[in-house]
Amino acid sequence: MRVLGIDPGLTRCGVGIVDVRRDRTATLVHVGVVRSPVDASVAERLAIIAAGIRVVLEEHRPEVVAVERVFAQQNRSTVMGTAQAAGVALLLAAEAGLPTATHTPSEVKAAITGYGSADKLQVQTMVARVLRLEELPRPADAADALALALCHAWRGAPAEAAADAALTPAQRAWAEAEKRTRNRGALAR
């Protein structure tokens, strides 16, 4: 399964794609960060993030998208920007006909490190170990995106099944047609 993990943010939006086999072994496909300038308007920043995510979706053709679930923070402007970036990511996945899931930071940390309150370094270290990377993925937003993708691949099957079950027959047929079109495009390359 190819999973795109997105750690949403207005300044830095982490994106990470992994291929995960049935035996839970994983391979790094892509990792990066979409950055937007802090002095740009929110609309411009969201457009930059959307463009960056679109490129990743088109180039790497994930099968599912996992986005960090926004949680309440004390800094309202930070939470608003994170929520807006998450909304953009979910919208783009829906437009591409991809199933989506959200996972809380503690769910991701528990899946990757075994401890829901792990720090950034622990997450980076375990992501590097799982993906057999020589260096820790940096910045932390990139590592978090990879952790989201791994978490979803390891824990997300029920969420995908529930999402698929919620589709009407017409929506399911449309999603299957979109997937066939994407697969034909991938074969033509």
TrEMBL record:
Mg(2+) 2 binds at E68. It is an enzyme of class 3 (hydrolase). Coiled coil: none annotated. Its main location: cytoplasm. The active site is at D7, E68, D141. Keywords: Cytoplasm, DNA damage, DNA recombination, DNA repair, DNA-binding, Endonuclease, Hydrolase, Magnesium, Metal-binding, Nuclease. Its cofactor is Mg(2+). This is Crossover junction endodeoxyribonuclease RuvC. It comes from Microbacterium oryzae. The lineage of its organism: Bacteria, Bacillati, Actinomycetota, Actinomycetes, Micrococcales.
